Amino acid sequence: MAKNKYQRVLLKISGEALMGDGIYGIDHQMVERISGEIKTVTGKGYEVCVVVGGGNIFRGLSASKNGFDRASADYMGMLATVMNALAIQNSLEGIGVETRVQSAIPMSSVCEPYIRRRAMRHMEKGRTVIFAAGTGNPYFTTDTAAALRAAEMSCDVLVKGTKVDGVYTADPKEDKNAKRYDRLSYMDVLSQDLKVMDASAITLCRENKIPIVIFSMLEKGGFAKAVAGTGKYTLIEG
After folding, report:
1. Going edge to edge, which strands form the sheet with 128-132?
2. Mind listing the pLDDT tens digit for each residue in 6-38?
3. Least C-beta-crowded within 10 Å: which of 51, 55, 82, 168?
4. For the whole model, what pTM was predicted?
């Protein structure tokens, strides 16, 4: 691989992306496709770590609106992310990608606890590290967890896979006149209240000068194109 300005990459995958065309749970074919995308990128010499959401199984914020205690609901959502992380790990190792799952909530019988220096060492050895259980604290989203881990791992970029090929002025599925941005500043996202990531995540990336790339997880080869700076995506920086 030719030297690229992005060498260490954090991939943020929403739990919803793992559902595929379903309405709940984990779609095996979708997990396999995402794993193949990760293998392609690691095969080109990039160091990759992953943060995965849990919305395909349980959404803490939605549950809290329906009467659940917010903290309890968020912890349940964190446990859902561990299930997703294990599914991705199983798929990756099935195609020859060495991985480690680290959870912000210690559960030593299932995976490693999150230890920053150990995670960095795994990446230096070419392993893909999957971070589960968000930040380990309620009231924080997995987007914020992704920004936090990207900063802690000294990542060159945070790449978020969504169901659309970038950031739009409105939901393109609902508004046919929505326009896609090629490039935005962090302040553009905050001031326009664009719903690509929560404000805490954007602010954390801004403070640590971590660019954010938004691309479509549904596009074949989209992850590799995004880190290489080709294909369709929106870049947030500056």
Report:
1. 112-113, 99-103, 128-132, 47-52, 8-13, 157-162, 212-216, 234-236, 183-184
2. 999 999 999 989 998 888 999 999 999 999 999
3. 168
4. 0.94
Reported confidence tier of residue 212, pLDDT bands at 50, 70, 90: very high
Is pLDDT at 169 greater than 70 in this prediction? yes
* Predicted local distance difference test score (pLDDT) of residue 172: 87
Spatial contact of 156 and 8, defined as CB atoms under 8 Å apart: yes
Query: CA-to-CA distance for 201 and 220, rounded, in angstroms?
Result: 27
pLDDT the model gives residue 1: 42
8-236: which CATH architecture? 3-Layer(aba) Sandwich (3.40)
Question: How far is Cα 114 from Cα 133, in angstroms, rounded to an integer?
Answer: 10
Each residue of 34-47: pLDDT tens digit? Answer: 999 999 999 999 99
Which whole-number Å values give the CA distances from 29 to 87, 89, 153, 212, in the listed order? 11, 14, 29, 27
Task: Concatenate the DSSP letters of all residues of 48-80 into one string.
Answer: EEEEE--TTT--HHHHHHTT--HHHHHHHHHHH
Residue at 119: amino acid letter = A
Q: Is the dihedral of CA 193, 197, 203, 205 positive or negative?
A: negative
Q: Which residues of 120-140 are buried (b: 16+ CB within 10 A; e: fewer)?
A: bebbeeebbbbbbbbbbebeb
Higher confidence at residue 64 or residue 118?
118
